[in-house]
Amino acid sequence: MKSKDLRERSVEDLKELEKSLQRDTFTHRFKNFTNRLDDTSAMNKTRKDLARVKTILRERALVDATKKSESK
Q1: Residue percentage of the chain with pLDDT more than 70
Q2: pLDDT by residue (tens digit) across 12-56?
Q3: What is the DSSP string of 39-64?
Q4: Could you identify which of 8, 40, 43, 63 might form a hypothetical disulfide with 28, taking C-beta atoms 3.0 to 4.6 angstroms apart as the criterion?
């Protein structure tokens, strides 16, 4: 996923995607441990996508917080 595509999504979609990526990360780790994961690069790709989603969510939270503090 590209960050440009992620920035176009709503906060709710990003939170759902975050949950899905966390589940996928766990599944990949478990499959790798049991030697059933064919593409081990999928683990790193999923982790990086999860980090991108979390970063964008954090940025949006900070922007909302600064807007609230400026309006007071």
Answers
A1: 100
A2: 999 999 999 999 999 999 999 999 999 999 999 999 999 999 999
A3: -THHHHHHHHHHHHHHHHHHHHHHHH
A4: 43
Is residue 41 assigned to a domain? yes
Neighbours of 58 (CB within 10 A): 10
In whole angstroms, give the CA distance from residue 43 to residue 4: 22
Look at residue 4 and tell me if it is in a domain: no
The domain that holds 60 is classified in CATH as 1.10.287
Question: Residue 13 is which amino acid?
Answer: D
CA distance 22 to 71: 35
Read off the pTM: 0.91
